[in-house]
Amino acid sequence: MPRQITLADGRTVEVDCLSCALTSGLITPTGGVIYESNHFHIHQDVAYPIRGLVILASKRHFHCMDELSDEEQIEYISLIHKVRSEQRTRLGIDMVYYFYNEDTTHHFHLWMVPRYEWMGQFGKSVESLRPVLLHARNQLNDEENMKKVIEGINELREGLRDFVSRTE
Ligand SMILES: [Zn+2]
Hints:
The protein has 168 residues and is α+β, with helices and mostly antiparallel strands. It has one domain: HIT family, subunit A. The chain is 36% helix and 17% strand. It has helices at 18-23, 70-91, 126-139, 143-160; strands spanning 3-6, 12-15, 35-36, 40-43, 54-58, 96-99, 109-114. The strands form two sheets. Strands 3-4-5-7-6 form a five-stranded antiparallel sheet. Strands 1-2 form a two-stranded antiparallel sheet. The longest helix has 22 residues, at 70-91. The chain is globular, with a radius of gyration of 16 Å. The N and C termini lie far apart (34 Å). The site of zinc ion (ZN) has 5 residues, from helix 1.
């Protein structure tokens, strides 16, 4: 189902799939692209302002894990591994939650959500994820936190700058 997206410059476009619009470059995510290869695109959704949160999306439009090509499978795990490593070394992130659902209205994308101490108030594991994201969206959307989030994006981009996955 097509949806209206308002671009940063104020224009409105209609897209069938938000992931396609992002990974093809039609929409530039706030904070910019963290990493891009032939098969994948990494960015942050700053609507959920959590420092170090990363979305790793395929460039191809598909939904299920068993649709990854051989090359995509290899690059996928090597990219997750690399991002995780940069989250730890550059941003001091000790724990990450990973979230991915095949019935998305977008296309194949993995959320990598850092686990911070303040999230403990919402419990642990999968049931805490939605309240954590909503809290970030509604309570942490201030200038000071957004600055830290953008810094985090820049750090990760720097960390991934020269990364070449094993398939390329
Ligand atoms: Zn798509």
